[in-house]
Design a protein that fits this description.
The structure holds two protein chains of two kinds. By secondary structure, chain A is mainly alpha-helical. Helix content of chain A is 74%, strand content 0%. Chain B is mainly alpha-helical. Classes of the chains: A mainly alpha, B mainly alpha.
């Protein structure tokens, strides 16, 4: 078997072509969706020239405005709460060696990643509907609580990775210099953890912003978020307005991911 | 300082710091799952909800139905066809995403270090993009007046649009599209740790490319394969948005069937039993995964 010098052991037949095909398949629909959001025509079926018409229509639509505002409020609260509790849990479960019940803590924290969303949605529907009757409160609190909970693992994982990779010598030095444990945390641990915390908060924010199923089941009447509003629109005649909202959400997601990419990259 | 005292304080600190996260999750994620399991063995309420009477009726109704007139028991064909469709579509989705995902993960894993992160980033964008937006994007492609049909007509392959939307095929295409990144990411993680010298060794021993793939690569990246398959299979089985949007109501999957019980169906115990069934399947899959990944590792 004579082999050329350039023989590349990592090449497998058809793999590169299939990979390129997969990338095209992943992006073609998204690009089509974005492209049609700039459609000046009156329906998704006819192209009416480049225009920002549907962005203007979406921006002036009061239902969209309220849904967008609600989505942002919920996502901000969820990101703050999830990140706060996840940071504490990451500090509690790493660097201390193994302790009894650690596996239980891992399972509970990562549970939202494993259980199908529809099951959690149904469970929350049952639970919150009786709480709603008992307390009479039917505000955004339920959505914020539910979102905070399923965002925890998304915040926890990057923070935990950061804690694991952290050098403890600075904290030891601070303690040697008689810093209180709060001051050590405030001035040493927290700043060192910050990239992980920012990354975790951003993933939690996106996860909350994108949620459809749990929101659909937990929300009370008139509490649509952008995704549930869009799901409702799909049942009616479709207009490029949905494309415009989707593109705006997509742009926000990509922006957050780019920031995430640089925040996590810097540590190396 | 006694060793046990130190361990206890470490553990106490660990629990204390984890407590807020645990309380939040037990309150608004894990805890309510227990209610679902309990509801599955209660009797159906008159309108909706439940009556607090122990009853196996819901579990019975998962698989069987009783004739209202003569009381004969038969298999619930409608339910079975929904389960069968869910399992069939989920397995097909897992298989197709694997066939597409393995080459993609391999391609990313074998890029030079400088561009690898960029290719990986191109997979993470669809991964983090709203599921609904992606489902909606694929819908625009397979609609009768969509990109695919328009293209096929232009080339002259077909003369009239093929009806794909609102069929099982549409759901399959949609789930494959939506869950492909979930397959690629764990496969990439496994390939990224792969020692390519092993392939060289294989070639030196005159193995063919096919033998290398089957005998060297696949056994070593097996934990990644199992992880990818489970990460695709579980959400496919519990899929709700994709079949609702692309299947158009008629082509229900378990997820939509569960929702129906809490909506028009007004049979909360049955919905709870179906949810518990999904939970059990997840549990079994995770046990399989843990076994496979602990027994895995370098071959031989």
């Amino acid at each position: 078997m004579a082999r050329a010098r350039s023989f590349d052991v990592t090449t497998l037949p058809g793999f590169a072509i299939t990979a390129i095909l997969a990338f095209v398949l992943l992006y073609a629909p998204i690009i089509t969706l974005v492209f049609y959001s700039f459609n000046g025509g009156n329906s998704v079926n006819q192209w009416g020239g480049l225009s920002l018409k549907w962005y203007a229509i979406a921006a002036q639509n009061e239902a969209v405005q309220q849904a967008a505002l609600r989505s942002l409020i919920i996502a901000l609260w969820a990101a703050v709460i999830a990140t706060a509790v996840a940071t504490m849990a990451a500090l509690g479960t790493t660097r201390r060696g193994k302790f009894k019940g650690q596996t239980f803590i891992y399972i509970v924290i990562n549970q939202p990643l494993m259980v199908p969303e529809i099951v959690t949605a149904v469970a929350l529907l049952i639970f919150f509907s009786s709480v709603k009757i008992a307390t009479g409160y039917s505000g955004l609190g339920y959505l914020i609580l539910a979102h905070s909970a399923f965002c925890v693992p998304f915040a926890y994982l990057p923070i935990k990775a950061r804690v694991e990779g952290m050098d403890t010598s600075m904290e030891t030095a601070a303690a040697d210099l008689y810093a209180t444990s709060w001051n050590t945390f405030r001035f040493i641990t927290l700043p060192l953890l910050l990239p992980g915390i920012i990354a975790g908060a951003m993933l939690a924010f996106i996860t909350s912003l994108d949620n459809v199923i749990i929101t659909e089941f937990v929300k009370s009447a008139g509490q649509d978020t952008l995704p549930t509003y869009m799901l409702g629109q799909l049942r009616r005649a479709m207009t490029p307005e949905v494309n415009a909202i989707s593109t705006a959400l997509l742009a926000l997601t990509v922006l957050i991911l780019i920031i995430f990419y640089f925040v996590t990259k810097k540590r190396d | 300082m006694s060793g046990t005292g130190k361990t206890r304080s470490k553990g106490a600190n660990g629990w204390l710091l984890s407590a807020p996260a645990l309380i939040l999750l037990l309150l608004a994620a894990s805890g309510p799952l227990v209610i679902v399991v309990i509801y599955s063995v209660l009797a159906k309420g008159d309108y909706s909800g439940v009556r607090w009477i122990l009853s196996g009726d819901a579990w019975f109704r998962v698989l069987f139905e009783k004739d209202i007139f003569d009381g004969t028991v038969s298999l619930a064909d409608a339910n079975l066809s929904i389960f069968w469709r869910s399992v069939k579509l989920s397995l097909a989705t897992t298989l197709i995403t694997f066939v597409l995902g393995l080459p993609t993960a391999w391609f990313i894993g074998t890029r030079p270090k400088t561009t690898r992160a960029l290719w990986l980033f191109l997979i993470t964008i669809p991964f983090w993009t709203n599921l609904l937006i992606r489902t909606f994007a694929i819908m625009e492609v397979i609609r009768n007046q969509g990109l695919l049909n328009t293209l096929l007509i232009k080339i002259g392959l077909i003369s009239a649009p093929i009806q794909i939307l609102y069929t099982d095929t549409a759901v399959l295409i949609g789930m494959t599209y939506v869950y492909l990144p979930l397959m690629v990411l764990p496969l990439f993680a496994a390939i990224d740790r792969f020692d390519f010298k092993l392939i060289e060794a294989g070639y030196d021993l005159y193995a063919s490319r096919w033998q290398i793939l089957r005998g060297v690569i696949l056994p070593i990246i097996k934990p990644g394969i199992v992880a990818g398959c489970i990460l695709v299979f579980i959400p496919s089985l519990g899929a709700y948005v994709t079949p609702r949007v692309l299947g158009g109501g008629k082509n229900m999957m378990i997820g939509n069937f569960i929702e129906l019980q809490f909506g028009q169906g007004q049979n909360w115990p049955l919905g709870a039993a179906l949810s518990t069934m999904l939970l059990l399947i997840v549990l079994v899959s995770l046990v399989v995964y843990t076994r496979a990944s602990t027994r895995g590792g370098p071959h031989g």
